[in-house]
Amino acid sequence: MKRLLIAIAALPAVTPALAGIGKHNGEIGFDFGYADFDQDLSDTNGARVTIRGGYHFADWFQIEGEDVGMATSGSVGALDVDTTIGAFFVNGVFNFHPGRGSVVPYVLGGVGLATIRLDYNLFGNEDDTGGASQFAVGSRFFFGRNKRAAVRLEASVMHHKTSDLIIANQTFTEKSLTAGFTWRLGGEK
Questions:
Q1: Fewer CB atoms < 10 Å away: N or C end of the chain?
Q2: Are 53 and 27 in contact (CB under 8 A)?
Q3: What residues pair up with 66 in beta bridges, in sequence order?
Q4: pTM
Q5: SS3 of 165, please?
Q6: Residue 124: phi, psi to the nearest 5?
Q7: What secondary structure does DSSP assign to 14-71, as a single string?
Q8: Which letter, b or e, does each residue of 134-144 get, where b requires 16 or more Cβ atoms within 10 Å of its Cβ?
Q9: Sign of the torsion angle spanned by Cα atoms 53, 57, 62, 66
């Protein structure tokens, strides 16, 4: 979570004049949104925050790293619990029709690790780290004279598995809807 807060604090140093889709350009961005938690982790929905950065190997393909934080307060069975999930993914992003107008839809798939932490208000806490994967669809909506900054909307599904601390070998699924901004790092299109 500290990494996430540091990255958010550093974003104002990047101006919108540094953003878009283009071969050999970097991209950074952040998203905020809604998370629908697996019912075995919490009976309430929560928030999702994402920091991402990547590199475009071609106009249509990019590799990105994504740091995800999710949190909610609710119940698991009869216990009140604060649930947090921290995940890191390496995503392959496939852009459709890059360079043709202001709207660039995409799909992405990623693999990584997720850590679940359950804080039971009166009974301590436990956490577990396991493998994770995700699939998402979304679109970037570029704006400005040079179309180098974009609003990003995304719907995603994340699956992650526990090893033995919480519930052995159980897979959890969270669904999210997020909105944010992205900027290109690099030369002109």
A1: N
A2: yes
A3: 52, 89
A4: 0.80
A5: coil
A6: 85, -155
A7: S-GGG-S--TT-EEEEEEEEEEE--TTT-SS-EEEEEEEEEEEEETTEEEEEEEEEEE
A8: bebebebebee
A9: negative
Are residues 183 and 148 in contact, defined by beta-carbon separation less than 8 angstroms?
A: yes
Residue type, 72: T
Is the CB of residue 132 less than 8 Å from the CB of residue 89?
A: yes
Instruction: Of 130, 94, 100, 134, give the one whose Cα is nearest residue 115.
Output: 130
CA angle, 136 as apex, 3 and 48 as ends, to 5°?
A: 40
User: For 37-55, how does the pLDDT look when each residue is reduced to its tens digit (9 = 90+)?
Assistant: 988 888 889 999 999 999 9
Residue 174 φ then ψ, to 5°: -120, 140
* pLDDT tens, residue by residue, 22-42: 778 899 999 999 999 988 888
Identify residue 133 by its one-letter amino acid code: S
Q: Are 154 and 178 in contact (CB under 8 A)?
A: yes
pLDDT digits 0-9 by tens, 139-169: 999 888 878 899 999 999 999 987 765 566 6
152-158: Cβ within 8 A, 24+ apart: 152/29, 152/31, 152/178, 152/179, 152/180, 152/181, 152/182, 153/178, 153/179, 154/31, 154/33, 154/178, 154/179, 158/68, 158/87, 158/114, 158/132, 158/133, 158/134
